[in-house]
Amino acid sequence: MTSILTRTLAVGAVPIILAGCMGAGRLELACFDPPAIGPATHASVVSVHKMGGGIDVADAPDGADLSTMGGDVHVGSAGPFAKLKTMGGDISINRAAGFVDASTMGGKINIGQAGGAIKASTMAGDVTAHLTGSSSARRDISLSSMSGAILLTVPKDYGMDVQIKLAYTKNSDGKYRVIQHLGLAERQTTEWDTHDGTPRKYICVTGRVGNGGNTVKIDTINGDISLKQE
To answer: Is 28 exposed, middle or buried (0-12, 13-18, 19+ CB in 10 A)?
Structure first.
């Protein structure tokens, strides 16, 4: 099995890239010049792309770009961004100073703390995300699961335009709900919709909180949705 690890380094004003290819019991390194960047730019982005197996990165102060064809992905701490992808497995990140983009074809997603925008999607599994801190920049949030519960926690001063859609199918017990104490409007459909295959009904929750400056979109099927402030 082969995996590729690259780390971009800046030494003074001259950036280089170290690339490691691990396979068949050997490690090969190559150094080459990347596209020119400004002299004030210093980066050491952790980039790992694997054909299979888990990825565990303790610290990526300048960002992380991680993907695997199958396996769990975990990051302890990331800087301005974390882009995490697996074709099958759980994704977890303890802390990120900037934005987080996480996607899995099947598994749970847990974002312990994120200081920037959040995008997380799974085909089957629960999603938990926690936005922290304050910022004058937009920090939009998009969370989706094709089957699972979603919990989002945001700061009290976080203004948002909320769009929530919870679908429950006819073959489920239908006891799912949207939990929020923000005064948002809730509407439930009465007819079974068959446009997406299995007949389903929807619980839709919309409204603005504060200045409504950030878009928050949450979608799931057959799972509770909880939106809370702290």
So the answer is: exposed
pTM (2 d.p.):
0.82
Taking only the tens place, the pLDDT of each residue in 45-104 is 999 999 999 999 999 999 999 999 999 999 999 999 999 999 999 999 999 999 999 999
Cβ atoms of 105 and 113 closer than 8 Å: no
Q: Cβ atoms within 10 A of the Cβ of 183, count?
A: 8
Closest CA to 92 of 75, 117, 105: 75
How many alpha carbons lie under 13 Å from residue 66 in its C-beta half-sphere? 32
Domain residue spans in the chain?
A: 1-44, 45-229
Query: Nearest Cα to 82, choosing from 94, 70, 71?
Result: 94
Size of the chain, expressed as the number of residues it contains: 230
Between CA 230 and CA 228 the distance in angstroms is 7
Residue 8: strand pairing partners: 17
